[in-house]
Amino acid sequence: MGNVANVPRNRVAKIALMHQYLAQNANHICRNGIESQ
Q: Which superkingdom is the protein from (predicted)?
């Protein structure tokens, strides 16, 4: 039971981390694009 309850939390945490990582990369790319222009 405990493991089943933990799986969605881990999945949400992984998605949140991936989202944060992608958002940081997007910001970096946008900044680089603006600076290069």
A: Bacteria
Q: What total number of domains does the chain contain?
A: 1
Q: Spell out the SS3 assignment of the chain.
A: CHHHHHHHHHHHHHHHHHHHHHHHHHHHHHHHHHHHC
Name the CA radius of gyration of the chain, rounded: 16
- The verdict on residue 8 lying in a domain is yes
Note down the domain range covering 17.
1-25
Angle ∠(5,7,26) on CA atoms, nearest 5: 135
pLDDT digits (tens, 9 = 90+) for 1-31: 556 666 778 888 999 999 898 888 888 776 7
